[in-house]
Amino acid sequence: MIKLAIDAMGGDYAPKEQVEGAMLAIKANPDVVLTLYGDEAEIRKYLTNEERITIVQSEGTIDMGEKDPIRAIRSNRNSSMALALSSVRSGDNDGVVSSGATQALIAGSHILIGRLKAMKRTAIAPLIPTVDGGSYILLDAGGNLTITAEYMLMQATFAAIYAKEVQGIKKPKVGLINIGTEPGKGRDLDKEVFELFSKTDYFDFIGNVEPKEVLDPGCDVLISDGFTANIVMKCIEGTAKGLGKILKQEITKGIFGKIGSLILKGRLGKFKSRLSAEDIGGAMIYGLRGVVVKAQGSSKAYGFSRGIHQAATIVRNDVLNKVQQTLKQ
Amino acid sequence: MIKLAIDAMGGDYAPKEQVEGAMLAIKANPDVVLTLYGDEAEIRKYLTNEERITIVQSEGTIDMGEKDPIRAIRSNRNSSMALALSSVRSGDNDGVVSSGATQALIAGSHILIGRLKAMKRTAIAPLIPTVDGGSYILLDAGGNLTITAEYMLMQATFAAIYAKEVQGIKKPKVGLINIGTEPGKGRDLDKEVFELFSKTDYFDFIGNVEPKEVLDPGCDVLISDGFTANIVMKCIEGTAKGLGKILKQEITKGIFGKIGSLILKGRLGKFKSRLSAEDIGGAMIYGLRGVVVKAQGSSKAYGFSRGIHQAATIVRNDVLNKVQQTLKQ
C-alpha cells in the first residue's frame, strides 16, 4: 500500500476541502492509505467515511504569511505540516501533500525529511499551464539563486524521469530559458548548460527557449537558475493579472456587459487562478528523501484530491529510486 | 534648431509611414529640422511638404532579420540607418529616429556614434505599458548580460533624468526587479544594488519590485541586469501572446461571436501590439554621444512622428549633457 501524510490544516479552506479531497482520493486510488494530521474534532466534522484514513492530532499552526519559514517550522514541531513531514523521515509515510505555505513547506522538507543522496540541491518544480490546456514543469522556481550547470543537469534529469513516470511522456523534451534561440546565447552559465545538456541521454534537449513562448514552449520541462525561473513565474502571473484588469475594465463597460463577465469566469479566469506564484499548485519539491507535493492554497476538494493522486503516482512509479539509480551511474 | 536624422527606409511600412510621420512631426515641433536618409525617388512619392526637410540618398538596406548586426552595419555603410547614425557623429545632427532592426541599431550606434564619456555601458530602455494606460522605463532590455551595481546606478540615473526632463516627473521612482520585496532578497548583485541605490539622491529608490506587479509596478523605472530584464520583457510578451490566443479561442466561438472580435480589436489588442520584444517601440539607447530612438518596426505615420517628438524632447531638454554633468560629480 502507498502511505501518504495529509496536512489537513494547511490551505485557505482547511480542513474542510482537505478532508473531502482525502475521501475523494481514497475512492480513486485503491492502493492508498492516508494519515490526516490536524485537529481531530475539526476533521471529524467533515469526515463521513473513514475507510483507509487515520487521524493524528496536531498542535499549533503555521501562519501562511510567516516571514521566517525556518523559524515557523522549528517553533511548531507539532503543527500538522511538521508532523506530516516528520512522518516521512520516520518511514511511517512515503510522501506528504500540503496546501500550506510554500516557503514553510520547502524549509520544513529540508529540516524534517532531508536530501536525497544523489541530488546535491533541492528544487521546486511547479506545473505551468500552456495555451493548449496542458502544462510543463518549470525549474527551479525558487530554491537555488545561484547554481552550477551540473546541478541543473540533475534537476532536469529528475524532471524528465517525473515526466516519463508520472505524466507518461516517453522521451521528455527539456528547454533552456534564454534571451535568444541560437546556441551561444546568454550568460556563461547558460552556455555551459547548453553544452552539457547537448551531450546527455537522459532527455531530449531542444535547446534555448525564449520566454516569448512561455505559455507555449514546445517542451515538457523549462529550466533556468532559481532566480531567473522565479522571475519568469512571477512575470507570467503579473502579466496575466494586469491583462485581466484591462480586460475587465474593457468588457464590463458599455455594450459588452454580461457577456464580458461570462468570458472572465470561463477558461481565462481558470487559467489566471492557476498562475499565482504565491500559491503554486501541483508543484513537487525535488531532491528529498520522500515525496512532497504542494497543492494550491486555494484548493477545493477535487483539486486537493488531484494533489494526493499526483503524490501516489510518484510513489507508485518509484520515481525517487529511479532518480537515485540514474544519477548514481 | 534641433536637427534630427530620420532613417526613412527602416520599418515594415517604410518609407511611406516614415515620410508621412516626418511631416507630422515638423508640424508639431516648430524648432525641428529633419534630414531623411533613404531612396530619394521613393521618398518623393510621399513627401508633399518639404518644409524643414532635406533628403540624403542612401545605398543598400539593412535586413530586419539579419543574424549578425555588426556585419550588417559594417557592410552597409551607406544604408539609410548607417548614414543617419554617422551624421550624428559628424555633428550634422543631434539624434536619430529609426524603425529599423533593433540589434542593428544598437550595434550601429556603438560603431558609428560611440559612447558618452560618463557612461561606462550603453543600455536599451524600452517603455513598458502599464494597466492604467501609462508606461515605465525597463532597464536594461538587452545590452549587458553581466553588469556591476555601479553601472546599474549610472543607467538608473540616466533613466531618472530622462523621466524628469522628457516625461516631466519631478522625482522619478526607481524599483529593482527581484524575487521578493524585502531587503536582502536576491543574488549578490541585487543586494549590492539595493544598498547602493538606497544611498543615492539621484532618484527615489522604492526598493525591490516583484514581477507579479510587472504591469503595475508603482515606479517610473524598473531595473535589472540585461539578461533578467530581457527575460522579463519577453515573458510579458509571451504571456500576453498566450492569453490572447486563449481569449481568441474562447470569445470567437459560440455565443460570443462578433462581440468577442470587437474586444480583441480594442484596448487589449493595442496593448498586445505595444508588447513585442522583437519590436520594441519608443526605446532610447542610453550611453551614446547622441540621441538614438528606436520606433516600433510596425509604426504608422502617427506612431513614428511620436518617436521624432520623443527624440526632439530629449535634445531640447539637453538630457545628454545633464547626464554627463550629473555623473561627473
Quote the distance from N terminus to C terminus of chain A: 29 Å
What fraction of the residues of chain A are assigned to beta strands by DSSP? 15-25%
Element order of chain A: H for helix, E for strand: EHEHEHHEHEEEHEHEEHHHEEHH
Total DSSP helices of chain A: 12
Low-confidence stretches of chain A: none
Written account of the structure:
Two copies of one chain form a homodimer. By secondary structure, the first copy, chain A, is α/β, with parallel strands linked by helices. Chain A folds into two domains: 1-119 and 287-329, Isopropylmalate Dehydrogenase; 128-277, Isopropylmalate Dehydrogenase, CATH 3.40.718. The first copy, chain A, has twelve helices and twelve strands. The first copy, chain A, has helices at 16-28, 40-46, 69-74, 80-89, 102-112, 149-165, 188-198, 226-251, 257-265, 267-273, 301-316, 319-328, and strands at 2-7, 32-38, 53-57, 95-98, 123-125, 127-129, 135-139, 173-177, 204-209, 221-223, 283-286, 291-294. A seven-stranded mixed sheet of chain A has the order 3-2-1-4-12-11-5, sandwiched between helices. Chain A has a five-stranded mixed sheet with strand order 6-7-10-8-9, with helices on both faces. In chain A, helix 7 links the parallel strand 8 and strand 9. The longest helix of chain A has 26 residues, at 226-251. Chain A is globular, with a radius of gyration of 20 Å. Chains A and B meet through helix 8, helix 9 and helix 10 of A and helix 8, helix 9 and helix 10 of B.
